[in-house]
Design brief:
This protein is mainly alpha-helical. Helices cover 46% and strands 4% of the residues. The strands form four sheets. It has a two-stranded antiparallel sheet. Strands 2-3 form a two-stranded antiparallel ribbon. A two-stranded antiparallel ribbon has the order 4-8. The longest helix has 22 residues, at 108-129. The radius of gyration is 23 Å and the shape is globular.
């Protein structure tokens, strides 16, 4: 995997040091720019990295696969056309910027924040492709063809890094933090909450209460730094226009390529879920407060899709207009998600926490997050919402569906939840164009990996059951 930005910076140094016996100073300073920055500004690197995270919290492809969204006029992704996107941009961009913060090493706390954010990005990447470069990544010219770590090794590496980061903060400064303004306690909660998110994703692979995933989960929950428990503590970014804007606002700025799917609007209707008032907007216009529950039918061909949107002009856009203003918050990890994850762990027997209390709290926090009041007793009594004692028959389904709803519109999380649990039950696109006609389980590796890192890419493909296809399953999905 070539990372040209990294090459450019390091190769220049190598060339400069190998020009005969002359020192660099011997060539004079005629081309020096006295105003140029010669050392990376860690505050700017952190600010830019945090701003860049929004694309990971609103992963549109995952949103199509999880049926949060439907395409409104160009139905290719929701019909499962082969996706061979490259992951190199993440390495040469946000991951490298976060690595540079640690290399410059101006502040211990700055370094810990960079490590935490790197693990968040790696979590997104591995859950798209599977095996990816991890332990040998970001080494520049010293390792220009990094090995692909197994997903098992990546998961264990992420959890180990986060565990260390959560307990390594001191009194040093954090500059450029546009998320928490340098609040160390907030970053500790994020590290521990991300540990919960990662650990619960392994419950299919390690279901037992004494297995690796449960052990990691309980350790994170017991950490003195705590986890996110209120909406005031959410890992979220409130963009500051004009430099940074809400990523969904950008998606509707002069376009309307996607909307909420009928799968979602049917689900909220069946539950009488008040969150639909925030989930769907009748117009792509920013700030518009009109709601819509008219989801776009999922998986139709171009003709049927365009016919529907033309005949239903108030089809549901993703989020109501006032929930996707330029400065509307983008959510990464929320209190509702964490409470529901803890409820899932309690139902698995991983913890002795009160299942009912956590479940109720998680749904209530989600309603609060979206400003739609408080769920009613009738809502909790709905057979497709209600849960029983630990291990009861419908608990996995209903907890998973509530996690799915609480994660909207984070397409990556919706896709993760569905792939792990099978809930909500999703019907593949009727007009699917892929050979299996099934919902993709992963993104295929980019063909460029065969020309830039063939041996390591071949080794990763050989570990995939079924090869480099969209149907091959994640390690944790087997």
């Amino acid at each position: 995997m070539k990372k040209r930005f990294i090459y450019a910076s390091l190769i220049g140094l190598v060339l400069a040091s190998s020009v005969g016996c002359k020192k660099i100073e011997d060539f004079g300073v005629a081309n020096d720019n006295p105003a140029a920055t010669t050392n990376p500004r860690v505050d700017a690197l952190l600010t830019n990295s945090i701003a860049s995270l929004s694309g990971y919290a609103f992963y549109v492809t995952g949103g199509y696969y999880s049926q949060y969204f439907s395409q409104s006029q160009y139905p290719d992704v929701m019909l499962y056309a082969l996706d061979q996107s490259a992951f190199t941009g993440a390495y040469s961009g946000i991951l490298y910027d976060l690595e540079n913060i640690q290399l410059v090493n101006t502040s211990n706390n700055q370094n810990q924040v960079a490590k935490i954010l790197q693990q968040y990005v790696y979590f997104q990447l591995t859950n798209r492709w599977g095996d990816i470069p991890y332990s040998q990544a970001l080494k520049g010219i010293t390792v220009n063809a990094p090995a692909y770590d197994t997903q098992e090794a990546i998961y264990k590496g992420m959890l180990a890094t986060l565990t260390t980061a959560a307990t390594s903060f001191n009194s040093s400064a954090i500059s450029g933090d546009i998320m928490f303004n340098g609040d160390v306690a907030a970053w500790k909660r994020v590290a521990n909450s991300l540990r919960l998110v990662i650990s619960i994703q392994l419950s299919k692979k390690y279901p037992g209460a004494s297995d690796y995933a449960a052990t990691q989960f309980k350790a994170a929950l017991a950490d003195a730094g705590g986890v996110i428990t209120s909406n005031a503590q959410n890992m979220q970014l409130t963009p500051a226009a004009p430099n940074f804007r809400n990523v969904i606002w950008d998606g509707y700025n002069g376009r309307k390529d996607y909307g909420e799917s009928k799968t979602m609007t049917d689900l909220t209707a069946s539950l009488g879920d008040a969150r639909q008032a925030a989930f769907g907007g009748a117009s792509e216009q920013s700030g518009n407060v009109a709601t819509s529950n008219v989801g776009i039918p999922y998986g139709g061909d171009k003709s049927s899709t365009e016919s529907f949107t033309n005949n239903n002009p108030t089809w549901a856009r993703v989020l109501r207009g006032d929930k996707r203003d330029q400065a509307s918050p983008v959510f990464f990890i929320t209190a509702s998600q964490i409470a529901l994850i803890r409820a899932e762990a309690a139902n698995l027997g991983w913890t002795t926490e009160n299942l009912s209390d956590l479940y109720t709290q998680g749904i209530t926090l989600s309603y609060e997050q979206w400003g739609v009041g408080t769920p009613s007793a009738a809502y909790f009594a709905n057979a497709n919402v209600a849960i029983g004692a630990v291990g009861a028959a419908n608990n996995v389904k209903n907890i998973s569906i509530q996690r799915y709803l609480a994660s909207y519109p984070d397409g990556q999380q919706g896709w993760n939840i569905w792939r792990k649990t099978g809930f909500p039950a999703l019907t593949p696109a009727a007009a699917a164009v892929n050979s299996s006609k099934q919902i993709p389980r992963r993104i295929a590796y980019s063909p460029t990996e065969q020309t830039t890192n063939k041996a390591n890419n071949d080794a990763a493909i050989a570990r995939l059951s079924g090869g480099n296809t969209q149907d091959a399953r994640m390690w944790w999905d087997q």
